[in-house]
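Section 5.1 Outputs to date
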Amino acid sequence: IERLTAINDFCEQNQGQYFYYDAESIRNDTNNCLTQLSDYLELSTPLSSSYQLFSQTGKERVGDSSEQIKSGRVITHGNSYAEIELDSELLNKANSLFNKLRQNIIDNAKPNPETNHPKPHDLVDNSVKLP
């Protein structure tokens, strides 16, 4: 909840200045997402599904701290998080906040007007729910 709120705050402060897609989108449509992100960033060399690891890769409070991020490539299968047990009331609260803030994050993402790039949230899977 804290991390999602922080991401939402960033998006509120940077409306129209970021590209958004869900992790599921990049897992399920990797090449399309990376192509569109490369176009959005106007990169001369397109992004690849493989990436270099740096000293901060996988560190807590710096970004994704999962073991999967340390693979150096986009992982195309998700994690079920079955090992995590949460109180159902807390899970319902988290789901509700997730849906509210996620919609705000999507709404504040805008296309790059210089490249006439499609709206970033066209790549968003609207069926995404917390596990």
